[in-house]
Amino acid sequence: MNGETTYLTGLAEVLWPCGGLLGRGGECTRPLGEHPPAPRAGVVREYLPVPSAHNPRVILPVTNRYAAARGIAAFAQRHSFRERVRTAVLTTAFASGVAPLLLRDRLHVGTGRTIEHALAAALDRDVVIAIHVGPPRANRKPVLLLLTPAGRTIGYAKIGVNDLTSRLVRAETRALRRLADARMRDVTVPRLLHAGEWNDHPLLVQEALPVGEQTDRPTRRQLLRCVLQISGLETVRDLPLSAAPYRRTLTQRISGLADRPEAPALRAALDRLPDVRLPFGAWHGDLTRWNIAGTPRRAFVWDWERLAFGVPVGFDALHYELNECVQHGVHPGVHRWLDTGARLLRDPLITGAGLRPDTVATVMALYLIDLATRYLHDRQQEAGGRLAAVDDWLLPALAGLEHRAVHEARHVG
Fold it and tell me: Domains plus CATH for the chain?
């Protein structure tokens, strides 16, 4: 049993405590969990781990081809031609009913109380689920696409499966409640449909945003408009860095890293930054191509589990740009980001919000310190996160930004 099968085992114990078996089509051979109850007589649900139980990325119902095909389409990352072709092939295979003949691994779930029952009761309607698992990360958690039996989308559910993901699910629940009263001119966020617990794990259900073939990644201008409207979720305050609550909070977070060897370097870098005035507002906290899409007139933004307030304006733009730059390699991507990120912060839209061009390097350095602190607290490197090895790329980039920040401040002074 590899690590991915172990993860699948633990996930099944959370979603289907009535018991399940992992096996091949038409048979049940391997228990899910150390001592699971055997499926009882009656209806046995079957799910397909795709592409396999040893590499699960999505989990789809065997007996509902409409829901399975919709799950493939909904969870696809169609940002390249290759990804679009793969999505089209898999969608066709499930819609035609051929996929269950080709994919042999199965999750057999017994009768009894399951996550489907809890969701149906919460929403007062029959629910079929397709599950996105995704690649290994510290914050990896199941995202459930909720469908009617006919395959129409109802919404999405998230459930925490460990301490970190449980904390994030609760944080997103609070964020969606707060955002329900917010008014952003060009940005739409999902409504919270239900919040509660399942099997002693936090559960939230949110509406599905109209994202699909008619939407695309944001343009530069649309991205920056979105960043500024999010920052305006609270009154933007212009403060010296030394007097900002953000600096004190960041210092406390770094102190919370205890004996992590990277902590002294982060603390020293923060102490060396110049005491410049910066605008502080809200940020989404994880704005990337995977949780924003738009039309020419509107942006749709989801995954609000990292929403925070009182941070330097521009962090969201830097985060989006960094994740774009590293798509084809971390080191060349970070080198490119040092230039493109600075250009984003010097855009008239951002400078018009109060960020002075001579503070750009300071904001970029603060962002890297913040990101490193998050990764270290979440133990992303141990989970195999792409950008998680902060001593490999982040600390060297931070050292260069420190020098640039000091130079900018002295030059202005």
Answer: 3-207 (no CATH), 220-412 (3.90.1200)
